[in-house]
Design brief:
By secondary structure, the chain is an alpha/beta fold. The chain is 39% helix and 15% strand. The chain has one domain: TIM Barrel (Alpha-Beta Barrel), CATH 3.20.20.100. Strand 6, helix 4 and strand 7 form a beta-alpha-beta unit. The chain is globular, with a radius of gyration of 18 Å. It starts with 8 loop residues before the first strand and ends in a 17-residue tail after the last helix. InterPro entries: AKR (IPR020471), AKR5G (IPR044500), Aldo/ket_reductase_CS (IPR018170), NAD(P)_OxRdtase_dom_sf (IPR036812), NADP_OxRdtase_dom (IPR023210). One of its GO terms (molecular function) is oxidoreductase activity, acting on the CH-OH group of donors, NAD or NADP as acceptor.
Length: 277
Protein backbone atom coordinates (compact mmCIF):
# COMPACT_ATOMS: atom_id res chain seq x y z
CA UNK A 1 0.00 0.00 0.00
CA UNK A 2 1.57 3.28 -1.11
CA UNK A 3 1.34 6.01 1.52
CA UNK A 4 1.64 9.48 0.10
CA UNK A 5 0.98 11.94 2.88
CA UNK A 6 0.28 12.61 6.53
CA UNK A 7 -3.39 12.99 5.62
CA UNK A 8 -3.65 9.42 4.28
CA UNK A 9 -6.44 7.49 5.99
CA UNK A 10 -7.62 3.96 6.57
CA UNK A 11 -11.32 3.08 6.38
CA UNK A 12 -12.62 1.59 9.63
CA UNK A 13 -15.22 -1.18 9.58
CA UNK A 14 -18.06 1.33 10.10
CA UNK A 15 -17.01 3.50 7.14
CA UNK A 16 -15.23 6.22 9.16
CA UNK A 17 -11.84 7.34 7.80
CA UNK A 18 -8.98 7.54 10.31
CA UNK A 19 -5.51 9.01 9.66
CA UNK A 20 -2.85 6.29 9.47
CA UNK A 21 -0.30 8.33 11.42
CA UNK A 22 -1.10 10.44 14.46
CA UNK A 23 0.43 12.00 17.56
CA UNK A 24 0.31 10.17 20.87
CA UNK A 25 0.49 12.28 24.04
CA UNK A 26 1.15 9.65 26.73
CA UNK A 27 3.25 11.22 29.53
CA UNK A 28 2.98 14.70 27.97
CA UNK A 29 2.34 17.02 30.89
CA UNK A 30 -0.94 18.92 30.93
CA UNK A 31 -0.55 22.63 30.21
CA UNK A 32 2.23 24.10 28.11
CA UNK A 33 3.98 20.82 27.21
CA UNK A 34 0.97 19.04 25.71
CA UNK A 35 -0.50 22.24 24.24
CA UNK A 36 2.74 22.88 22.33
CA UNK A 37 3.09 19.26 21.17
CA UNK A 38 -0.44 19.20 19.74
CA UNK A 39 -0.05 22.70 18.27
CA UNK A 40 3.20 21.77 16.49
CA UNK A 41 1.70 18.51 15.23
CA UNK A 42 -1.37 20.23 13.78
CA UNK A 43 0.75 22.98 12.22
CA UNK A 44 2.90 20.30 10.57
CA UNK A 45 -0.13 18.55 9.08
CA UNK A 46 -1.00 15.86 11.61
CA UNK A 47 -4.76 15.37 11.84
CA UNK A 48 -5.03 12.64 14.49
CA UNK A 49 -4.42 13.15 18.21
CA UNK A 50 -4.53 10.26 20.70
CA UNK A 51 -5.07 10.97 24.41
CA UNK A 52 -6.72 9.20 27.36
CA UNK A 53 -8.35 10.03 30.69
CA UNK A 54 -5.38 8.32 32.40
CA UNK A 55 -2.89 10.70 30.72
CA UNK A 56 -4.44 13.59 32.66
CA UNK A 57 -3.86 15.99 29.78
CA UNK A 58 -7.22 16.12 28.00
CA UNK A 59 -7.68 19.78 28.96
CA UNK A 60 -4.39 20.78 27.36
CA UNK A 61 -5.21 18.77 24.24
CA UNK A 62 -8.60 20.50 24.08
CA UNK A 63 -6.97 23.91 24.42
CA UNK A 64 -4.57 23.19 21.57
CA UNK A 65 -7.43 21.97 19.35
CA UNK A 66 -9.35 25.16 20.09
CA UNK A 67 -6.32 27.38 19.43
CA UNK A 68 -5.49 25.61 16.15
CA UNK A 69 -8.13 27.42 14.12
CA UNK A 70 -8.91 24.14 12.33
CA UNK A 71 -12.54 23.14 12.01
CA UNK A 72 -13.65 20.25 14.23
CA UNK A 73 -14.23 17.87 11.33
CA UNK A 74 -10.63 18.25 10.17
CA UNK A 75 -9.22 16.61 13.33
CA UNK A 76 -9.58 13.01 14.47
CA UNK A 77 -9.58 12.86 18.29
CA UNK A 78 -9.22 9.65 20.31
CA UNK A 79 -9.59 9.24 24.07
CA UNK A 80 -9.80 6.21 26.33
CA UNK A 81 -11.86 4.97 29.25
CA UNK A 82 -9.74 4.33 32.33
CA UNK A 83 -9.94 1.13 34.39
CA UNK A 84 -11.42 2.63 37.55
CA UNK A 85 -14.22 4.17 35.45
CA UNK A 86 -15.38 0.88 33.94
CA UNK A 87 -18.96 -0.38 34.31
CA UNK A 88 -22.13 0.81 32.53
CA UNK A 89 -23.11 4.02 34.35
CA UNK A 90 -19.48 4.80 35.18
CA UNK A 91 -18.54 4.69 31.49
CA UNK A 92 -21.32 7.09 30.52
CA UNK A 93 -20.11 9.50 33.21
CA UNK A 94 -16.41 9.12 32.35
CA UNK A 95 -17.14 9.81 28.70
CA UNK A 96 -18.95 13.07 29.56
CA UNK A 97 -16.01 14.10 31.75
CA UNK A 98 -13.53 13.47 28.94
CA UNK A 99 -15.69 15.35 26.45
CA UNK A 100 -15.98 18.31 28.81
CA UNK A 101 -12.22 18.41 29.46
CA UNK A 102 -11.51 18.27 25.73
CA UNK A 103 -14.14 20.96 25.10
CA UNK A 104 -15.72 18.88 22.32
CA UNK A 105 -19.27 17.91 21.33
CA UNK A 106 -18.29 14.43 20.19
CA UNK A 107 -15.28 12.10 19.97
CA UNK A 108 -14.05 10.47 16.79
CA UNK A 109 -12.86 7.36 18.62
CA UNK A 110 -13.29 6.12 22.19
CA UNK A 111 -11.43 3.05 23.43
CA UNK A 112 -11.62 0.78 26.48
CA UNK A 113 -8.08 1.28 27.78
CA UNK A 114 -7.55 -2.20 29.33
CA UNK A 115 -9.68 -5.38 29.53
CA UNK A 116 -10.72 -5.13 33.20
CA UNK A 117 -12.14 -8.55 34.02
CA UNK A 118 -15.85 -8.62 34.82
CA UNK A 119 -16.29 -5.01 33.72
CA UNK A 120 -15.30 -4.48 30.10
CA UNK A 121 -18.52 -5.96 28.69
CA UNK A 122 -20.68 -3.54 30.68
CA UNK A 123 -18.39 -0.71 29.60
CA UNK A 124 -18.79 -1.82 25.99
CA UNK A 125 -22.60 -1.73 26.29
CA UNK A 126 -22.36 1.87 27.46
CA UNK A 127 -20.01 2.71 24.59
CA UNK A 128 -22.42 1.11 22.12
CA UNK A 129 -25.15 3.39 23.50
CA UNK A 130 -22.93 6.48 23.12
CA UNK A 131 -22.10 5.36 19.58
CA UNK A 132 -25.77 4.82 18.66
CA UNK A 133 -26.57 8.21 20.22
CA UNK A 134 -24.07 9.83 17.83
CA UNK A 135 -21.70 11.05 20.56
CA UNK A 136 -18.80 8.93 19.24
CA UNK A 137 -18.09 8.28 15.57
CA UNK A 138 -16.31 4.96 16.26
CA UNK A 139 -15.62 2.72 19.27
CA UNK A 140 -12.79 0.32 19.93
CA UNK A 141 -10.52 -1.30 22.48
CA UNK A 142 -6.94 -1.18 23.63
CA UNK A 143 -4.69 -3.95 24.95
CA UNK A 144 -7.14 -6.77 24.11
CA UNK A 145 -5.83 -10.24 23.35
CA UNK A 146 -7.84 -12.39 20.88
CA UNK A 147 -9.59 -14.20 23.75
CA UNK A 148 -10.78 -10.84 25.18
CA UNK A 149 -12.10 -9.89 21.74
CA UNK A 150 -13.85 -13.26 21.38
CA UNK A 151 -15.55 -12.66 24.70
CA UNK A 152 -16.59 -9.13 23.72
CA UNK A 153 -17.87 -10.14 20.28
CA UNK A 154 -19.98 -12.94 21.78
CA UNK A 155 -22.46 -10.44 23.31
CA UNK A 156 -21.55 -7.14 21.68
CA UNK A 157 -23.73 -5.64 18.96
CA UNK A 158 -20.94 -3.48 17.52
CA UNK A 159 -17.57 -4.87 16.41
CA UNK A 160 -14.68 -2.71 17.66
CA UNK A 161 -13.10 -0.69 14.84
CA UNK A 162 -9.65 -0.62 16.47
CA UNK A 163 -7.50 -2.65 18.82
CA UNK A 164 -4.67 -0.43 20.04
CA UNK A 165 -1.83 -2.56 21.37
CA UNK A 166 1.84 -2.33 22.19
CA UNK A 167 3.48 -3.09 18.85
CA UNK A 168 7.03 -2.61 17.60
CA UNK A 169 9.62 -4.79 15.82
CA UNK A 170 10.41 -6.70 19.05
CA UNK A 171 6.68 -7.33 19.62
CA UNK A 172 5.22 -7.76 16.15
CA UNK A 173 1.86 -9.09 17.48
CA UNK A 174 1.28 -11.43 14.53
CA UNK A 175 -1.45 -13.41 16.32
CA UNK A 176 -3.35 -10.25 17.24
CA UNK A 177 -2.91 -8.86 13.73
CA UNK A 178 -4.18 -12.09 12.12
CA UNK A 179 -7.19 -12.21 14.42
CA UNK A 180 -8.05 -8.57 13.85
CA UNK A 181 -7.68 -8.86 10.09
CA UNK A 182 -10.12 -11.78 10.11
CA UNK A 183 -12.67 -9.69 12.06
CA UNK A 184 -12.09 -6.44 10.14
CA UNK A 185 -10.58 -4.67 13.17
CA UNK A 186 -7.72 -2.24 12.49
CA UNK A 187 -4.62 -2.68 14.65
CA UNK A 188 -3.04 0.47 16.05
CA UNK A 189 0.42 0.58 17.64
CA UNK A 190 1.22 2.25 20.91
CA UNK A 191 4.89 2.55 21.87
CA UNK A 192 5.83 1.94 18.21
CA UNK A 193 9.44 2.96 18.94
CA UNK A 194 9.63 0.74 22.05
CA UNK A 195 10.36 3.84 24.15
CA UNK A 196 13.45 4.40 22.00
CA UNK A 197 14.93 0.95 22.71
CA UNK A 198 14.47 -0.31 19.16
CA UNK A 199 16.46 2.50 17.57
CA UNK A 200 19.91 0.99 18.21
CA UNK A 201 19.01 -2.29 16.48
CA UNK A 202 21.64 -2.94 13.71
CA UNK A 203 19.02 -3.86 11.07
CA UNK A 204 17.19 -0.59 11.70
CA UNK A 205 20.44 1.41 11.74
CA UNK A 206 21.53 -0.14 8.46
CA UNK A 207 18.27 0.79 6.75
CA UNK A 208 18.41 4.29 8.20
CA UNK A 209 21.80 4.72 6.56
CA UNK A 210 20.62 3.26 3.26
CA UNK A 211 17.62 5.60 3.01
CA UNK A 212 19.27 8.59 4.71
CA UNK A 213 16.54 8.51 7.37
CA UNK A 214 16.46 8.29 11.15
CA UNK A 215 15.96 4.92 12.85
CA UNK A 216 12.57 6.17 14.09
CA UNK A 217 11.48 6.99 10.54
CA UNK A 218 12.38 3.46 9.42
CA UNK A 219 10.23 1.91 12.16
CA UNK A 220 7.29 4.26 11.49
CA UNK A 221 7.50 3.45 7.78
CA UNK A 222 7.46 -0.28 8.65
CA UNK A 223 4.28 0.30 10.69
CA UNK A 224 2.56 1.94 7.75
CA UNK A 225 3.66 -0.72 5.28
CA UNK A 226 2.37 -3.60 7.45
CA UNK A 227 -1.02 -1.90 7.38
CA UNK A 228 -1.39 -0.61 10.92
CA UNK A 229 -2.17 2.79 12.39
CA UNK A 230 0.64 4.30 14.46
CA UNK A 231 0.88 7.11 17.02
CA UNK A 232 4.51 7.86 17.93
CA UNK A 233 4.68 10.12 20.96
CA UNK A 234 6.92 13.17 21.23
CA UNK A 235 6.83 16.60 22.83
CA UNK A 236 9.80 17.94 20.84
CA UNK A 237 8.98 19.99 17.76
CA UNK A 238 11.79 18.61 15.55
CA UNK A 239 10.88 15.00 16.46
CA UNK A 240 7.18 15.56 15.78
CA UNK A 241 8.10 16.84 12.32
CA UNK A 242 10.72 14.14 11.77
CA UNK A 243 8.31 11.32 12.70
CA UNK A 244 5.98 12.46 9.94
CA UNK A 245 8.67 12.72 7.26
CA UNK A 246 8.20 9.15 6.08
CA UNK A 247 6.39 9.55 2.77
CA UNK A 248 9.29 10.01 0.37
CA UNK A 249 10.67 6.47 0.51
CA UNK A 250 9.45 2.89 0.63
CA UNK A 251 10.97 -0.21 2.25
CA UNK A 252 11.22 -3.28 0.02
CA UNK A 253 9.16 -6.37 0.89
CA UNK A 254 12.37 -8.11 1.99
CA UNK A 255 13.23 -5.22 4.33
CA UNK A 256 9.76 -5.27 5.86
CA UNK A 257 10.18 -9.01 6.54
CA UNK A 258 13.67 -8.43 7.99
CA UNK A 259 12.29 -5.91 10.48
CA UNK A 260 9.34 -8.18 11.35
CA UNK A 261 11.80 -10.99 12.04
CA UNK A 262 13.30 -8.96 14.90
CA UNK A 263 10.25 -10.09 16.89
CA UNK A 264 10.99 -11.67 20.31
CA UNK A 265 7.51 -11.20 21.81
CA UNK A 266 9.19 -8.72 24.12
CA UNK A 267 7.00 -6.18 25.94
CA UNK A 268 8.04 -2.89 27.50
CA UNK A 269 4.54 -2.42 28.93
CA UNK A 270 2.23 -4.70 30.96
CA UNK A 271 0.73 -7.92 29.63
CA UNK A 272 -3.06 -7.55 29.15
CA UNK A 273 -3.48 -10.94 30.85
CA UNK A 274 -1.59 -9.82 33.90
CA UNK A 275 -1.99 -6.20 35.04
CA UNK A 276 -3.10 -4.87 38.39
CA UNK A 277 -4.17 -1.26 37.91
Amino acid sequence: MIMNSLQDTIKLNNGVDMPRLGLGVFKAEDGEEVINAVKWALEHGYRSIDTAAAYKNEEGVGQALKDSGLSRDEIFVTSKLWNSDQGYEETLQAFETSLEKLGLDYLDLYLIHWPVEGKYKESWKAMEKLYHDGKIRAIGVSNFHPHHLDDLLKDGEVTPVINQVELHPKLAQQEVRDYCEKHDIVVEAWSPLMQGQILEEPVIQELAQKYNKTAAQIVIRWDLQIGIVTIPKSTKQHRIQENADVFDFELTDEEVVKITELNENHRVGPDPDNFDF
